[in-house]
Amino acid sequence: DGGITQSPKYLFRKEGQNVTLSCEQNLNHDAMYWYRQDPGQGLRLIYYSQIVNDFQKGDIAEGYSVSREKKESFPLTVTSAQKNPTAFYLCASSSEWNSPLHFGNGTRLTVT
Amino acid sequence: GDSVTQMEGPVTLSEEAFLTINCTYTATGYPSLFWYVQYPGEGLQLLLKATKADDKGSNKGFEATYRKETTSFHLEKGSVQVSDSAVYFCALSERGAQKLVFGQGTRLTINP
Lengths: 112, 112
Hints:
The structure holds 2 protein chains of 2 kinds. By secondary structure, chain A is mostly beta strands. Chain A has no helices and 11 strands. Chain B is mainly beta. The termini of chain B are far apart. The model of chain B has no long low-confidence stretch (mean pLDDT 93).
């Protein structure tokens, strides 16, 4: 079955360390997205990519970085510059702009 | 900018009760409107959508009608089940825009 795989499900890191969250899709979708979810705040867009080797900042890109070297993969790195990194991170993809998003099951990152 | 406002949660109902979750939006153009559902520990799934005024989206007994005159897209279900317990997100996307805008989510709990 096609879908989006995020790994790991839970991730723990010490403050000051960079950490990379994996996102892989086999839906052959061009567009991919990273969202951050905090309690009571809905979803906020971190980065998005419309096509391989191209990506744009979303609303809260500071302290994060991404790459899009392959159509299937869109890893997110949470750097030590992100002041409050503990959150639930969701990766999504869509076949084109404005079409419904398909989400992965998320990675819960805890930084202590 | 574009925004989505949902009714405050949490909402707690008894099984077989009637459900309404209010959603209103602000947009400069003619957006598409969506309801997504998130079950515990998972990513979001598309529940239903509407792409133009007066369209009604429906799925799994849930319905929502795109009301341009009131800028609303309220979610309704005639008889809820325990399995409907989840967080519900209203969202919009503008034609030509580069992201989906989400409301803050409404947590729904159905008691047997």
